[in-house]
């Protein structure tokens, strides 16, 4: 190498060896009789292998140039180009990517490496063969599952000898470089001057691989957010809010409105992240951050609402300029680690169909029934009557209390209830009429109840009767 000293050249070689060798010693692939042929079998083998960080991904592939032999390994998988197969390199003990020469069955598009089982022709790779299409599927299956025990023992011995030889060589080389370094203690200025032109030997991360891993992590965050929607929203409550806010939903989600209004719980996880965020922030009772929905939360805020906001920001930054803050994403994943088993990390979101997530305040509808505008207040009274025996409606004169009471009474009458209406002063006849009613489904409407108290003079006995009457109704709640 012209322009470089001998010891510098050897030092670079040593660094490269030290980078590669830990993977060789600590992560040798294990030879197996066959590789998975389906998604379920792949997942089962992956769980059995128990791969962990920093090499968390299970991989099984054919051993390069060795017919009918297969191996499995823990590694970091990435994106494989179309028309190429993933194989295991018997020399480096890691993944390699080779061109598929078969006339059919080769990967037609780029794919994540752990989807290799979809292309069984890649399990039969060898430079000496071109994947003749005359081979039947039955013969291919037989080739995939066959194995020669004698070859395994022989190759295991070869591997052990190679590793031992490499270890001795590196030790000798390291001692030699130390001695050479002491002898040449004076630095060379010409090396410093040419530092900018020195070739880089560190391997740059493949851009496609990095993008695939980025998509996988941000898809997991999106999956966590969808899981929160299903977990935090009771189906009936969410449907009620969606109906009472249908006009606002239709305004913001024209394309997905019909599908949204007719979806079951499972289908909600198929919505885009903008829709999921809108439903979470409006209908699921999540406490908003101090800055409110639609704003980046404070660093010290680690509530569920704050993390949902952080996911919104991460997704928008990725859609804007393809940047992704891995550190912040990892912190959220750590706080939500209990959700991990509920989300399939292989469900990759198609970000070409996603739009930026923006906060939308959904407004309730004003429904008109029988000439009455059903406001949110009336809807709240109906909702409370589902769990309460007594509901008090307060307000100034002319605010619509009587109109609300008449509408609610009509709804209960249509459902078969007996309505007892009192607009006058409360006296003994009021209590007697209620007590003498021979029905369990009785709905009592007291219009201007407290106004009646203000216009009358009551005896102690009347107060006692009224107190006992109200207590008897309330007692039925417990």
From TrEMBL:
Protein keywords: Membrane, Signal, Transmembrane, Transmembrane helix
Domain Novel STAND NTPase, chain residue ranges per copy: 373-476
Ranges where the record places region Disordered: 134-153
Pfam family, one: nSTAND3
Domain DZIP3-like HEPN: 264-318
Top-level taxon of origin: Eukaryota
Composition skew (Basic and acidic residues), residue ranges: 139-153
Cross-referenced InterPro entries: HEPN_DZIP3, nSTAND3, P-loop_NTPase
N-terminal signal peptide: 1-26
Residues spanning the membrane: 158-180
Protein name per UniProt: DZIP3-like HEPN domain-containing protein
